[in-house]
Amino acid sequence: MIESKIKLTVRDVNDFPKPGIVFKDITPILKDPALCLEITRAMAAQVKGMDIDVVAGIESRGFLFGPQLAELLNVPFVPIRKAGKLPYTTVQQTYDLEYGTATIEMHEDALLPGQKVLIHDDLLATGGTVVAASKLVMQLGAEVAGYSFIIALDFLNGRLRLAPYSDKIYLLASY
Q1: Which residue in 3, 38, 61, 71 is the catalytic one?
Q2: Which of 7, 114, 160, 169 is the most buried (most CB within 10 A)?
Q3: pLDDT at residue number 137
Q4: Helix (H, G, I), strand (E, B) or coil at 171
């Protein structure tokens, strides 16, 4: 039921960010507070019973539901941001894009060794950014407990790239 609500609400934007891409825009979800709450509760229900110490959200759309998910799980939220956006000392991870490279970072004191981290983002595509986020978590001595997404583009095989870090991959809708 939640999957059909998400699919009815997500907007397809053709040729964004470049020609030939059909972008799945979740921003229409944000206009429906009841659906936002339902999504957050559904994500929390999926991971109920898991040993999670922290939710880490990936910039920027991982910040839309990640803090609320952390609140429902009663754990801290940690932001993973693009390079140069965090004010304190950071650890960084660079990864390849189809058109170059990108770097994400996290504060060096964001996680404690041994903490179990649920990595959250709005969408799983190829998995490149999420793999980089996983490596950041591991750099700080923490472990990836699992992943949480609103939607996944299964035809891009992102789940295969995440499997070496955790086989606990939760999503609410797939295309």
Answers
A1: 61
A2: 169
A3: 98
A4: strand
